[in-house]
Amino acid sequence: MSPDPTRRTLLRAAGIGGAAALSGCTGGVLESGGGSSAVGGEGPPTRDAPLYQPWDRSAVREATVDGGPDEDGIPSVDDPQFAPAAEVSLAGDDVVFGYAGEDDVKAYPQHVLVWHEITNDVLDGTPVAVTYCPLTGTAMGFERGTTTFGVSGRLVNNNLVMYDRATDSRWPQVLATAVDGSMEGDQLREFRLVWTTWDRWRAAHPDTLVMTEDTGYAKRYGSDPYGNYNPTSGYYGGGGPLFDPLGDAWEETGADAKRVVFGVRTADRALAFDDPALRERGHLASADGAVVAVHDPDLDTAWAYRTDGADVAAGDGDGRVRVDGEAHPAADLPLERVYGFDAMWHAVGGFYPEVEYVE
Predict the structure, then answer these.
(1) In this structure, are residues 201 and 210 in contact, taking their beta carbons and an 8 Å threshold?
(2) Which of 251, 317, 334, 341 is such that its CA lies 20 to 30 A from the CA of 80?
(3) Is the pLDDT score of 1 beyond 60?
């Protein structure tokens, strides 16, 4: 493992020195501190169908490292505030993580979440956690039940390790599986967040609400200690991950560690669809043809489906996808949708050594 938490060095290089600043807390609601924060009660609801998890949990625990800040040193937002689209000031190419449900349509700006990594919210009446890990480029949503999630200050495979405040169990974000605590082995219920830009999200959902900077914390929301996405620079712009990966078989592909892929896990395997290739070709299929990913040009995102033998092909340059000859919007194919998420290649490859890289 890396001898020193270089994340700490990176944050200091951004002009954020000192333990308090590293923790990300400058006079907010939560105070930095170690030790268990379990307060009792029920843990988060868990999924019924198993999710592929190739590593022994003991191996994941042993690979967990100090990420720099203490537990809750990066404070979750537990009372997020929202404003209509017309009342917020975002650049068109600002990254947002979008959710469009039956009742709620919300956007969570990356430049806010990078300082908190977790927002405990309610969507369509369901208590949820909206989570973002800057080191793996992953934005993922989870149901949380009556508890809330916090940032443990630990990382594994460069990925955020969350903890739930009821049982203090530890949940690596990408694995969505408890690797320590009384809920060890349990797996979270996930929901999709769309990684896109503000102008695309607003065009698709003009009635969206947007999480504001009114978080209860004094943060430098105009800056990102890791770099920039538009254009990509700093940590996001290339090079290797900060900490040693959980596995390194992914390096054999020759793809850049931070190349964006669309990760998909089923009960028995993982897939990584190369995002630039998907954008260029419109769709990509697994080697056995059982799972296909399609590009959604409106949101510049991807959706994955089980084909169940259907013939899936790109449309006629209109952004639609043909299933058995009939054209459909990429986000609404008449097939079973499979959960997927954007991620840096090293994150998916490290967690899933047998992953199929599709390009």
Answers:
(1) no
(2) 341
(3) no
The answer to whether the bond into 69 is cis (omega within 30° of 0) is no
Average pLDDT over residues 54-75: 96
Enter the tokens of residue 114: 């990078």
Question: How far, in Å, CA of 134 to CA of 227, rounded?
Answer: 10
Identity of the amino acid at 170: R
The yes-or-no verdict on residue 23 having pLDDT over 60 is no
Q: Parallel, antiparallel, or unpaired for β 190-191 and 138-143?
A: antiparallel
Put simply, whether the predicted model's pTM sits higher than 0.85 gets the answer yes
Per-residue pLDDT of 325-342, as tens digits, reads 999 999 999 999 999 999
Other Cβ atoms within 10 Å of 356 Cβ, number? 15
- % of the chain surpassing 70 pLDDT: 89
Sheet holding 105-109, edge to edge: 82-84, 209-211, 105-109, 95-100, 194-197
User: pLDDT at position 31, please?
Assistant: 31
Strand 270-274 and strand 356-358: the pairing is parallel
Q: For 194-235, what is each residue's pLDDT tens digit?
A: 999 999 999 999 999 999 999 999 999 989 999 999 889 999
